[in-house]
Amino acid sequence: MKETDREAVATAVQRVAGMLQRPDQLDKVEQYRRREARKKASVEARLKAAIQSQLDGVRTGLSQLHNALNDVKDIQRSLADVSKDWRQGINTIESLKDVKDAVVRHSQLAAAVENLKNIFSVPEIVRETQDLIEQGALLQAHRKLMDLECSRDGLMYEQYRMDSGNTRDMSLIHSYFGSTQGLSDELAKQLWMVLQRSLVTVRRDPTLLVSVVRIIEREEKIDRRILDRKKQTSFVPPGRPKNWKENMFKILDKTVITRIEGTQADTRESDKMWLVRHLEIIRKYVLDDLIVAKNLMVQCFPPHYEIFRNLLSMYHQALTIRMQELASEDLEANEIVSLLTWVLNTYTSTEMMGNVELAPEVDVSTLEPLLSPNVVSELLDTYMSTLTSNIIAWLRKALETDKKDWIKETEPEADQDGYYQTTLPAIVFQMFEQNLQVAAQISEDLKTKVLVLCLQQMNSFLSRYKDEAQLYKEEHLRNRQHPHCYVQYMIAIINNCQTFKESIVSLKRKYLKNEVEEGVSLSQPSMDGILDAIAKEGCSSLLEEVFLDLEQHLSELMTRKWLSGSNAVDIICVTVEDYFNDFAKIKKPYKKRMTAEAHRRVVVEYLRAVMQKRISFRSPEERKEGAERMVREAEQLRFLFRKLASGFGEDADGYCDTIIAVAEVIKLTDPSLLYLEVSTLVSKYPDIRDDHIGALLALRGDASRDMKQTIIETLEQGSTQVNPNYVPIFREIIVPSLNVAKLLK
Fold first, then answer.
1. I need a labelling partner for 448 at 20 to 30 A (CA). Which of 2, 127, 370, 387 fits?
2. Helix, strand, or coil here: 624?
3. Are the beta carbons of 487 and 582 closer than 8 angstroms?
């Protein structure tokens, strides 16, 4: 205690020292004293209050402990009294066993008395119930069946309560009511028959369907009540639970599956369109059934049965199974298309699940696909493989058919503009169009794949077409009398190239989206090149025909006969014009090229005759006469080809100007100007060679060997600038060998 006092004094001294550190604080000593006195009084008051509270708590606790002690003593006395009473009651309970047995027997007898009437009338009730079932009075039959089952179950329950191990009495009761289970099964059969025809029954006699549902609902309630009692007593009557609601949905599910499977009326052997018919029947049946279920059946079932949702699920599952079965069969290409179109498009369209009469209960976006993506992919691969083989076969057959037309004795058909054509382009692109329309029904991706396939096969086909056209030409050249209409059918082949081009462009424009056009269009240049090559070869073969007929008359040019007044050019013009009357059946792009090529070929052949040294003029008069004749014939040819080229908007007079330019060299009277004239010719036609100049000078007949040598050497030393737009014409004219050497001698 003294130690505590010392610590308190030390603390007080320290506190006072802290307050009186400056002289001016001495004036506030009284103020400090009063403040400390107030704090002390406050602390003492709180301390007294805390001590008082503790004392009150201790007082209350002691009081409660005292009361608890009294309560414990009272409980001890009560337990002693109970123990005494229990010992005294044991003997009393044992003496009441007979009473207990009597109560149980009374309960059983009471149940027997209660069901006595039913017990004695069981055979009669069974017969009545059987008659009612046969008459279709299902509700009344079920009521009597419930009475029988109630009597049986009540007796068996009482027996179970009295002696659960007494199987003999239980068996006796069960055998006495043995017909009850048979009636239950017979009634169930009738219910299932009504449910199997529920979609028909709901339209003809909805009351019957409602009765069936009421019976099932009654049985469900009885099942629930018995299962609840089982939790307490462990007793379950025979045949329970019946689970008729569960069985009802199983029956409906089997009915749906059978209805889907039963829609196949034909096979591939009896009808090529068997699958289309099968799928259309399924579509119609399913749509009609679901509309009936939505509008009528839901009114016959309790809401918690969700009958429409369950039926929709059953139909969807049955269709999934059926579609998978069909997909696993060895389907042909058109059958694969029919199946995929139905599965991917028709099923969710307004023609079926998307029908307005099924909305809003049916949301097509929530329906699972009928076929998995893997199965769809496999079917598409099979379809593309089969389609590839079919297209190759179809194209080969179409070409063979077209080739047979080429050897006919009659001219080919003409289109509305009068151009010869065969049916090949129409057949080919009609086939492509049909396959693309079919593919478009399935998906955009498949449509693009089929288009790419068609273009790829078209590329290969055109190569074969080119080869066949070449063989056709070679066969004709072996015997120009056969085929009879060779020219007309060659024209048709040329025109087909233009038709093919236009059809390819049209096909791509119609079936190809812009974003994938670049990838697919890579095949277009190669096809255009092949078609142009076929057309070019065709035009060349036709011109070969022309020049084979002109060969005799071309050989007369630049001869003495020609100089003396031959009509070779007249015949050439008539022959060319006659042929081009037939060539009028060629479509404009190719006819334009062909006319230009014919013009060029005629001029080249004319110049070739000039270079052949068939004649050498002997005098200035002959040179003048020959040159003037060349000019007249050049103008004659110019007039002819202007006439043939009318409407093309293209001027090709330059070819005939070459003949006139050569004629000017021949016509020259002053040999001293010959070098200048020849150099002008060479500058204008830079592809002219030394041998051409030698032959031309030899034709004049007045140039000495030294002059010829000088002109040729001088021209060789000069440089000629070639016009980039110049089209060579002398390059393919070959002067007979040794002519230059001979001419220089």
1. 370
2. helix
3. yes
In this structure, the number of other CB atoms found within 10 A of the CB of residue 675 comes to: 14
Q: Is the peptide bond before 241 cis (omega within 30 degrees of 0)?
A: yes
| pLDDT on residue 397 | 94
Give me the residue spans of the domains in the chain.
34-242, 247-371, 376-540, 557-732
Q: What fold characterizes domain 557-732?
A: Tetracycline Repressor; domain 2 (1.10.357)
For 575, residues 6+ apart whose C-beta sits below 8 A from its C-beta are 546, 549, 550, 553
- Bridge partner residues of 414 (DSSP): 420
pLDDT at 593: 87
Asked if domains 376-540 and 557-732 share a fold, the reply is yes
Furthest CA-CA distance within the chain: 177
Helix, strand or coil for residue 414? Answer: strand
* Residue 739 confidence (pLDDT): 44
Residue 380 makes CB contacts below 8 A (sequence gap 6+) with 336, 340, 442, 446
The answer to whether 209 touches 300, Cβ cutoff 8 Å, is yes
Supply the pLDDT for residue 394: 93
d(CA 40, CA 43): 5
Is residue 339 within 8 Å of residue 323, measured between CB atoms? yes
Per-block mean pLDDT, blocks of 10 residues, the chain (745 long): 76 76 74 80 86 87 89 89 78 68 69 61 72 79 77 67 62 65 82 88 88 88 81 73 88 90 78 86 91 89 90 92 89 87 89 87 87 90 90 92 90 87 91 88 86 89 91 87 86 90 88 60 70 89 88 89 88 91 85 88 91 85 89 91 75 78 86 80 84 84 72 66 75 71 42
Q: What are phi and psi of 414, to 5 degrees?
A: -115, 150
Contacts of 682-685 with CB under 8 Å at 24 or more apart are 682/715, 682/720, 683/720, 685/658, 685/661, 685/726, 685/729, 685/730
State CA 392 to chain mean position distance.
Answer: 23
What string of DSSP letters covers 444-504? Answer: HHHHHHHHHHHHHHHHHHHHHHHHHHHHHHHHHHH-TT-STTHHHHHHHHHHHHHHHHHHH
DSSP 8-state secondary structure symbol assigned to residue 344: I
Q: What kind of fold does domain 376-540 have according to CATH?
A: Tetracycline Repressor; domain 2 (1.10.357)
